[in-house]
Amino acid sequence: MSLQAWLLLGLNIIMLLVGQVLIKWDLDRMGGFQWNNLLATVTSPGILGGVLALTAGLVVWFRVLSLAPFSVAYPAQSSSYLIGIILGWLFFGESIPTIRWVGGLVILLGAYLVSVE
């Protein structure tokens, strides 16, 4: 994969994670999602910001797929899982058991291995 594709993949991952964190923050603030608060949920600034970040990430993903083999880009995107574990710990105070850290590292190693050309 080219340097441009790697940089755009990194940007895509950041946008996906920002979107998910914004959505989680707002859902926590609202007490979670229930069908009876659907309208309040989908019009909430944090949810809308999260959806915007996810949408922008999708547009960047279009470019990544235009530059890189799918069999490399898609597995490499899974490196976001380990970062997601870290963000859950940092931003939401989640307790992360050792096995989850190990699993995240195994996923990262697998993403690296499939990206080696």
TrEMBL record:
Domain of life assignment: Bacteria
GO MF, one annotated term: transmembrane transporter activity
Subcellular location: Cell membrane
Membrane topology: Multi-pass membrane protein
Pfam families associated with the record: EamA
Keyword tags: Cell inner membrane, Cell membrane, Lipid A biosynthesis, Lipid biosynthesis, Lipid metabolism, Lipopolysaccharide biosynthesis, Membrane, Transmembrane, Transmembrane helix
Family statement: Belongs to the EamA transporter family.
Gene Ontology CC annotations of this record: plasma membrane
GO biological process, alphabetically ordered: lipopolysaccharide biosynthetic process
Location, primary (coarse class): membrane
Ranges annotated as spanning the membrane: 6-25, 37-62, 74-92, 99-116
Gene3D superfamilies in the record: 1.10.3730.20
Residue intervals of the EamA domain: 13-115
Entry keyword Iron: no
Species for this entry: Heliomicrobium undosum
Classification of source organism: Bacteria, Bacillati, Bacillota, Clostridia, Eubacteriales
Protein name: EamA family transporter
Keyword Lipid metabolism applies: yes
